[in-house]
Amino acid sequence: MLKKKKSKIINEKKVNLLDFNLTQMINFMLTLGEKKFRAIQVMNWIYKKYNTKFSKMSNLSNKLKKKLEKTANINLPECIKKQKSIDGTIKWNFLFGSDFIETIYIPEKKRATLCISSQVGCMLKCSFCATGSLGYKRNLLVSEIIGQIWFAINKIREYQFKNPALPKIKNIVMMGMGEPLLNLKNVLIAVDIILNSHSFNFSKNKVTLSTSGIVPAINKIAGKIDISLAISLHAPNDIIRNMIMPINKIYNINSLLSSVKNYLLYSKANKSIVTIEYVMLLNINDQLKHAKELINLLKDISCKINLIPWNPIKNSFYKCSNYTRIIIFFNYLKSNGYTVTIRKNRGSDIDAACGQLIGKIK
C-alpha cells in the first residue's frame, strides 16, 4: 500500500497588528474575508481598552478570533529595566531582539511628556550627544515605535491606582534615540496611529517631531503630516554647526531653514510655529555675539527658541554654559521679541536627560 504523504503545515509569520494604521488594518481585515468595521473594533480593543488578547475581544465573532490567532499577534516591547529619577522622571529600557532602546516619561504637575525613540543608535554623530557615539544599528519598526507609547500609557494607568496624582501622558515627542526623518516610512505610519481617533487620538499640537535637519525629508512631509516640528539647530552659523553636527556639511543652515519655511506653509500645528532647539555649550556657541547671529538668522522664521543646558556624557570635552551665560543669552533673545524657554534638567541622575540616551543596561 502506498503511504499517504503528510500535508506540510506552512508556518507563515504572524503579523504584528501594532504595525498597522487604520487603512492597513482595514486591508488586513479584507484579506481575512471580514468587513471593514472589524478594523475599527480591533483598534478600539488595542488602543482604547488596552487589550492584547483576541479571546477577550467580546464583540468579535469566534470565527474572526480564530483567524486572528492563526495570522496575527499584538507583540509588545519587552521592558527589561525601569529607573526612576529623584525628580520623578522614569526611564524604561526595552529589548527588541538583541537591541536596546530607551523611552522617557517626564511628569509635570498636571501633564506628562513621553519621549520616544525611532532608531537603534544614530548615524548623525552629533558630537555633544551620547546616542551619536553608538553609531547606527537599524530603524525601529512601526510596532516598536508604537509599542513604546502603548506600554507607557498602560503602565502609567497601573501606577495611578497607587498614585492617582501621577499625571497622564498628554504630549509625545520624538526626541529619543535616532533621527526620525531617517526612518521616514515607519515614522509616518506611527504618526498616523498616534493621531487617529480610533487609536491614541493625540492632538497634532501635542505631538512633536525633532530633527537634526534632513532637508529632503522635511520637504517631503510638508503637507503630508501636520504635527509640531522641532529643529535641532544648536549653532548660529555653518562654521560652528559643521563642527558639532556633521549633517550640516550635507544640509547647511540656509537649506534647512528654507525647508522649515516650506513646512510651515502647510502646517497649522502649534500655531504654525517651529521650535528651535539650541544646546548651550561653554565657549562654543553661548556668547552674546552668537545670540546676535541667531536672531538675524531666524528673523524670517515663525519660531520659539528652547535653550538646552548641555547634559554631561562620558568621554566628552564639552562643558555646559554657566548660568550667567545662559541668562544673558536668554535675555538678549527675549529683548528682541523672541519667545524663549530654558529646558529644565530632568532625569540626568539616571542618564535620561536630553542627549544622554545610549540604550545600554547598567
Automatic annotation (TrEMBL):
<dbReference type="GO" id="GO:0002935">
    <property type="term" value="F:tRNA (adenine(37)-C2)-methyltransferase activity"/>
</dbReference>
<dbReference type="GO" id="GO:0051539">
    <property type="term" value="F:4 iron, 4 sulfur cluster binding"/>
</dbReference>
<feature type="binding site">
    <location>
        <position position="311"/>
    </location>
    <ligand>
        <name>S-adenosyl-L-methionine</name>
    </ligand>
</feature>
<keyword id="KW-0004">4Fe-4S</keyword>
<dbReference type="GO" id="GO:0030488">
    <property type="term" value="P:tRNA methylation"/>
</dbReference>
<dbReference type="GO" id="GO:0000049">
    <property type="term" value="F:tRNA binding"/>
</dbReference>
<feature type="binding site">
    <location>
        <position position="122"/>
    </location>
    <ligand>
        <name>[4Fe-4S] cluster</name>
    </ligand>
</feature>
<keyword id="KW-0949">S-adenosyl-L-methionine</keyword>
<dbReference type="InterPro" id="IPR048641">
    <property type="entry name" value="RlmN_N"/>
</dbReference>
<keyword id="KW-0963">Cytoplasm</keyword>
<dbReference type="GO" id="GO:0070475">
    <property type="term" value="P:rRNA base methylation"/>
</dbReference>
<dbReference type="InterPro" id="IPR027492">
    <property type="entry name" value="RNA_MTrfase_RlmN"/>
</dbReference>
<dbReference type="InterPro" id="IPR013785">
    <property type="entry name" value="Aldolase_TIM"/>
</dbReference>
<feature type="binding site">
    <location>
        <begin position="232"/>
        <end position="234"/>
    </location>
    <ligand>
        <name>S-adenosyl-L-methionine</name>
    </ligand>
</feature>
<dbReference type="GO" id="GO:0019843">
    <property type="term" value="F:rRNA binding"/>
</dbReference>
<dbReference type="GO" id="GO:0070040">
    <property type="term" value="F:rRNA (adenine(2503)-C2-)-methyltransferase activity"/>
</dbReference>
<dbReference type="GO" id="GO:0005737">
    <property type="term" value="C:cytoplasm"/>
</dbReference>
<keyword id="KW-0808">Transferase</keyword>
<comment type="similarity">
    <text>Belongs to the radical SAM superfamily. RlmN family.</text>
</comment>
<dbReference type="Pfam" id="PF21016">
    <property type="entry name" value="RlmN_N"/>
</dbReference>
<feature type="domain" description="Radical SAM core">
    <location>
        <begin position="108"/>
        <end position="349"/>
    </location>
</feature>
<protein>
    <recommendedName>
        <fullName>Dual-specificity RNA methyltransferase RlmN</fullName>
        <ecNumber>2.1.1.192</ecNumber>
    </recommendedName>
</protein>
<feature type="active site" description="Proton acceptor">
    <location>
        <position position="102"/>
    </location>
</feature>
<dbReference type="InterPro" id="IPR004383">
    <property type="entry name" value="rRNA_lsu_MTrfase_RlmN/Cfr"/>
</dbReference>
<dbReference type="GO" id="GO:0046872">
    <property type="term" value="F:metal ion binding"/>
</dbReference>
<dbReference type="InterPro" id="IPR007197">
    <property type="entry name" value="rSAM"/>
</dbReference>
<comment type="function">
    <text>Specifically methylates position 2 of adenine 2503 in 23S rRNA and position 2 of adenine 37 in tRNAs. m2A2503 modification seems to play a crucial role in the proofreading step occurring at the peptidyl transferase center and thus would serve to optimize ribosomal fidelity.</text>
</comment>
<keyword id="KW-1015">Disulfide bond</keyword>
<keyword id="KW-0408">Iron</keyword>
<keyword id="KW-0411">Iron-sulfur</keyword>
<keyword id="KW-0489">Methyltransferase</keyword>
<feature type="binding site">
    <location>
        <position position="126"/>
    </location>
    <ligand>
        <name>[4Fe-4S] cluster</name>
    </ligand>
</feature>
<keyword id="KW-0819">tRNA processing</keyword>
<dbReference type="InterPro" id="IPR040072">
    <property type="entry name" value="Methyltransferase_A"/>
</dbReference>
<dbReference type="Pfam" id="PF04055">
    <property type="entry name" value="Radical_SAM"/>
</dbReference>
<dbReference type="InterPro" id="IPR058240">
    <property type="entry name" value="rSAM_sf"/>
</dbReference>
<feature type="active site" description="S-methylcysteine intermediate">
    <location>
        <position position="354"/>
    </location>
</feature>
<keyword id="KW-0698">rRNA processing</keyword>
<feature type="binding site">
    <location>
        <position position="210"/>
    </location>
    <ligand>
        <name>S-adenosyl-L-methionine</name>
    </ligand>
</feature>
<feature type="binding site">
    <location>
        <position position="129"/>
    </location>
    <ligand>
        <name>[4Fe-4S] cluster</name>
    </ligand>
</feature>
<feature type="binding site">
    <location>
        <begin position="178"/>
        <end position="179"/>
    </location>
    <ligand>
        <name>S-adenosyl-L-methionine</name>
    </ligand>
</feature>
<keyword id="KW-0479">Metal-binding</keyword>
